[in-house]
């Protein structure tokens, strides 16, 4: 967990900095799928000792960004179509359940916080901000919804499906399409919080698959075959 210094700046440990740098390089494609990541080489590249790199790599593996192969070591996760479909199926199960719970259980304070974050996210999307910035806010939005249910297993579930990588690539694929809705996430949260679990589940499922289909299409058409 990050701490805040006296002047308000966020303090990061060496391991947190290493995680942030490596994860960004993976998502941007600088570290390509299947690439072997050697701890000592990463330590030299990032200018830190191998210990923070080891801590960062453990977290990267937990988040699904890298995987361990026997007799080979750690590699960047290879996003096959089948694997991505599996990720989305798990995400659908988790987030649709989150939506059903929030429909009737969200407090007024939680509703205000979710609505404010949804509005901020829609503004960034409409203004054409950087994909990375949108992705981070998008993750905060969905994780906050899970947090509002009070069930830690739902939050942990999102982390297990490589959520950061999944949303980053889904945002990229979705932004390449025209007709981005101006109040996409505001409308989503308004419908989820409308006291109707069935409606909440449906709108969440529609929201997930709106980015799923472009992402799968892009992956199938990619010139890079994994």
Automatic annotation (TrEMBL):
Name the Pfam families for this protein: FCD (PF07729), GntR (PF00392)
Domain HTH gntR-type, by residue range, is: 12-79
Gene3D superfamilies per UniProt: GntR ligand-binding domain-like (1.20.120.530), Winged helix-like DNA-binding domain superfamily/Winged helix DNA-binding domain (1.10.10.10)
**Entry keyword annotation includes Nucleotide-binding:** no
For this UniProt entry, the molecular function terms from Gene Ontology, in alphabetical order, are: DNA-binding transcription factor activity; sequence-specific DNA binding
Print the keywords alphabetically: DNA-binding, Transcription, Transcription regulation
Q: Has UniProt tagged this entry with the keyword Transcription?
A: yes
The name this protein goes by in its record: Transcriptional regulator, GntR family
What is the species of this protein?
A: Sphaerochaeta globosa (strain ATCC BAA-1886 / DSM 22777 / Buddy) (Spirochaeta sp. (strain Buddy))
Where is the organism placed in the taxonomic lineage, from the top?
A: Bacteria, Pseudomonadati, Spirochaetota, Spirochaetia, Spirochaetales
């Amino acid at each position: 967990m990050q701490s805040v210094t006296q002047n308000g700046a966020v303090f990061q440990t060496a391991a947190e900095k290493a995680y942030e740098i490596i994860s960004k390089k993976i998502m941007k494609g600088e570290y390509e799928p299947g690439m072997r990541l050697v701890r000592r080489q990463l330590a030299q590249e990032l200018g830190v000792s191998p210990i923070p790199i080891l801590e960062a790599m453990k977290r990267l593996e937990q988040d699904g960004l890298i995987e361990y192969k026997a007799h080979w070591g750690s590699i960047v996760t290879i996003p096959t179509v089948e694997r991505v479909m599996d990720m989305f199926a798990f995400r659908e199960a988790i987030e649709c359940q989150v939506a059903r719970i929030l429909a009737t259980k969200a407090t007024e304070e939680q509703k205000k916080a979710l609505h404010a974050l949804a509005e901020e996210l829609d503004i960034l999307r409409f203004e054409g901000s950087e994909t990375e910035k949108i992705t981070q806010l998008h993750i905060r939005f969905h994780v906050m919804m899970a947090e509002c249910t009070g069930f830690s297993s739902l939050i942990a579930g999102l982390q297990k499906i490589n959520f950061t990588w999944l949303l980053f690539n889904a945002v990229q694929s979705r932004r390449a399409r025209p007709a981005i809705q101006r109040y996409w996430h505001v409308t989503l949260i308004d419908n989820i919080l409308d006291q109707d679990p069935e409606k909440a589940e449906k709108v969440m499922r529609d929201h997930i698959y709106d980015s799923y289909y472009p992402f799968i299409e892009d992956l199938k058409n990619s010139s890079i075959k994994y």
